[in-house]
Amino acid sequence: MSARELRIGTRASALALWQARHVEALLAAQPGAPPVALVHIRTSGDQQRDTPLWQSAGRAFFTREIDEALAAGTIDVAVHSLKDLPTGLSPALTLAATLKRADPRDALLSRTGTSLTALPPRARIGTSSLRRRAFLARLRPDAVAMELRGNVPTRIERLRAGDYDAIVLAAAGLDRLGLGQHVTQRLSPREFPPAVSQGVIGVCARADDAATLAWLRVLDDREARLSVTAERALLARLEGGCQVPLGALAQLRDHTLELEAAVCALDGSRELRARGAARAARGGTPSPAEAAALGERIAEELLAAGAAQLIAGERAALTVSAP
């Protein structure tokens, strides 16, 4: 008897479809793999075009409807850009696999091929991220941050049309879509910390769906799992979401997991940083529990330095409207 079909829920953007098809190909490579069907799901982030997401109440704009379909049994697998997925999943769902991490950095695309520091005064830089706005303000306080929405190809077209002098996008998405030739500069994670889990594809399933979990767990990359476990634990402890200018990156080096994180005021006037490492108690690589403890420890250092007050002040300054 053949295995039952796995229904993969995904957004219909070019990048989301690339990610879903990548998971489909990885599943198909397994002996006896089940057939797969892609199910397109429109999310609130896709529908909400007029209001910047950072001005909207709530979170999970690009994942909520997909995860609701998963919990309801309409689909069997949910594929996400893990940076979009909230740290608090429904108890009915589990993060079954974290795929091998692509380039976690942000990328600058400029019309003239000019780097961030060499852009002209008051350069118009497009981004839809509060984190990117904050670190841009710190590195280039003269730059004018402008709202940027739409899928990746649309954003590049708007840059080429002259709507912006430069835009900032995730390097991983550009690479996956074969658009890396448009990148002017891959920004240093030290100066421009990426979003939590940036570059990682997360695959979710129902926690009680043993058959599906068996297919997905084979896809889990240990290094990516440890890195995002630390980063997501940090984010959860800071109670952050898309409305917090937080950047973080964990990396496994010689059996040691290193994590550096920064919280930045939106005007770039203040920045708090913390870094640390976790080593396995008995050799090898750290466990997921040790990775989570590292993330929580770095979060505590940031909180002790005043991160809670900085975050609260930035949230109060935002104009929040219902989506």
Give a verbal description of the structure.
With 323 residues, the chain is an alpha/beta fold. It has three domains: 1-99 and 200-220, Periplasmic binding protein-like II (D-Maltodextrin-Binding Protein, domain 2, 3-Layer(aba) Sandwich), CATH 3.40.190.10; 106-186, D-Maltodextrin-Binding Protein, domain 2, CATH 3.40.190.10; 222-323, 2-Layer Sandwich (Double Stranded RNA Binding Domain), CATH 3.30.160. The protein has ten helices and 13 strands. The chain has helices spanning 14-28, 44-47, 64-72, 130-139, 152-160, 171-176, 210-217, 222-238, 288-304, 307-317; strands at residues 6-10, 36-40, 77-81, 93-98, 106-110, 124-126, 144-146, 166-170, 185-186, 201-206, 246-253, 256-264, 271-279. The strands form three sheets. The chain has a five-stranded mixed beta sheet, sandwiched between helices. Strands 7-6-8-5-9 form a five-stranded mixed beta sheet, sandwiched between helices. Strand 6, helix 4 (130-139) and strand 7 (144-146) form a beta-alpha-beta unit. Helix 8 packs parallel to helix 9 (288-304). The longest helix has 17 residues, at 222-238. The relative contact order is 0.15. Mean pLDDT is 90; it is low at 53-58 and 319-323.
Residue windows where pLDDT falls under 50 for at least 5 positions: 53-58, 319-323
The rough form would be described as: globular
Measure the end-to-end span. Answer: 47 Å
Helix content: 25-40%
- How does the major sheet shape up? 5 strands, mixed
How many DSSP helices? 10
Strand order of the largest sheet: 2-1-3-10-4
Structural class label: alpha/beta
CATH C-level of the largest domain = Alpha Beta
Radius of gyration: 20 Å
Can you write the helix and strand succession as a string? EHEHHEEEEHEHEHEEHHEEEHH
Strand content: 15-25%
How much is the average pLDDT? 90
How many strands appear in the DSSP assignment? Answer: 13
